[in-house]
Amino acid sequence: MNCKKIISAICLLLLAMGCKNKTTSDAAAIKTPNVLFIAVDDLNTMLGSYGGPAITPNLDKLAAMGVQFNDAHCQAPLCGPSRASLMTGLRPSTTGIYGMIPDEKIGSNHPTDKKNVVLLPEYFKKNGYHTMGIGKLFHHHAPDGLFDESGGRVKGFGPLPKERFVWDGFGTSDRKNYGKTSTDWGAFPEADSLMPDHQSVNWAIERLNRTYDQPFFMGVGFLRVHVPLYVPQKWFDLYPLDSIKTMPYLKDDLKDVPPVAHKINDLPMMPSTEWAISSGEWPKIIQAYLACISFVDYEIGRLLDQLNNSDYADNTVIVLWSDHGYRLGEKGTFAKHALWNTATKVPLVFAGPKLPNGRIVEEPVELLSIYPTLLEICGLPTNDSNEGSSLVPLIQGKKLEHASVAITTFGMNNHTVKTKRYRYIRYEDGGEELYDHKTDPNEFHNLAADNSYKEVLLSLSENLPSTNAKWDVDSQYTFQPYFVEQKSRTTKADVPVTEPVGN
Q: Are 103 and 477 in contact (CB under 8 A)?
């Protein structure tokens, strides 16, 4: 056994001995666990286990056999920077990856010391794991050569019908200034087997039937529920239109938010909530989104069933996560692209050997913590460059010394801080938002201008990142003029932290 494997075994033994209700014989029997790393695109918390309307028996079962985090948040409400943050273990404000970035540029070309950046699957590979991956794990798939075995990326979000069903992709936007969204909804194609996610699961199932002489790390990235909201008709049939409830909505909701918030939320290529109301399409969009969730639940169920029937059932840690939430009419549109709760909140579940069953964690946590948490659970040495904190104490039901917070960043120097009670947002121009989830869970009323919350604002602002790196040269987001302008304006130097307005 080489030194790395000896260190891994010792760390794993110490972790097991430190867990509640673990016996010496249990700890001695533990082998280095495998990892099944499941990423689902654009999945919000409408799952059954979160109290949502989606029919998700397989995801509910996974939550029941593990630990579900009820208040987990992404580090960026956009696919590229969110996944880059999770995979590097670094915040967007540290790397400058605020927009999309080619997979091969992550970890090899950004402002931090690139020698210290070891991507999550790469770290497992360096510590004796056989690594495999398929589907959307990074923005497209993964940097070339990252996995020992790669099933490759799936191009686009098809299959696609010959013509769109409802939405043309441009909306009311000026085609010169905005891109074209894939947003559309309807029943297509005829069979699950025609969906790329079904084929990805087939690839993973085949590999779970193999024998390995070392622990494995397997990443499976699902495309749905990313738009277009196309899945076979049978999934739509689970949700009769007359059973669909639309989301809480206040027409004048945005009258009390700062100018930058309006710029970020300027998404004319997406359906607006007012259009969805007047056209009668709002329930149909939600129906399609729920149908996509149930389809993904079925595919994840196929994957988990194979794991449970394999030789690895009792020695595999599972983590399931989504890269960000998704708004279904909240705050005026259908998109992620915001620092509000429905855009940042995500499902997060850990399950596996020696982990508690059916535990619910209510403290706010970050996707950034997945990296260090997996290392600790698997008994691997810590990666000192990780900026997230391991969730193992919360998994074990321990009380934290300090209250946890979750920080999300969208563009340079635009941040939100989520605590158990409050959401605080600070934009690059110093504009602020504050919402009290105890009295206003829908974030309808911005309290930042209320002097009685002055001390709350000051306390929350202390959690904002002290570093706001300039945009990475290879990272960009051309979907909105605001981000194009911001990158052009702020690439000369790092931006200092802005003092709170009125403090």
A: no
- Catalytic one among 73, 110, 130, 139? 139
- Is 141 known to be catalytic? no
pLDDT per position as a tens digit, 66-106? 999 999 999 999 999 999 999 999 999 999 999 999 888 88
**CATH number (domain holding residue 206):** 3.40.720.10
Please check whether residue 59 lies inside any domain of the structure.
yes
| CA geometry: angle 333, 59, 349, nearest 5 deg | 85
- 402 belongs to the catalytic site: no
Residue 327 within any structural domain of the chain:
yes
Choosing from 79, 110, 130, 141, the catalytic residue is 79
What band does 486 get if pLDDT is binned at 50, 70 and 90? very high
Half-sphere exposure of 383 (CA within 13 A, CB side): 30
The predicted-structure confidence for 99-143, as pLDDT tens digits, reads as follows 999 888 887 545 555 456 899 999 999 999 999 999 999 988 988
d(CA 152, CA 155): 9
Q: Strands 185-187 and 72-73, how do they pair?
A: unpaired
Q: What is the residue range of 144's domain?
A: 31-401
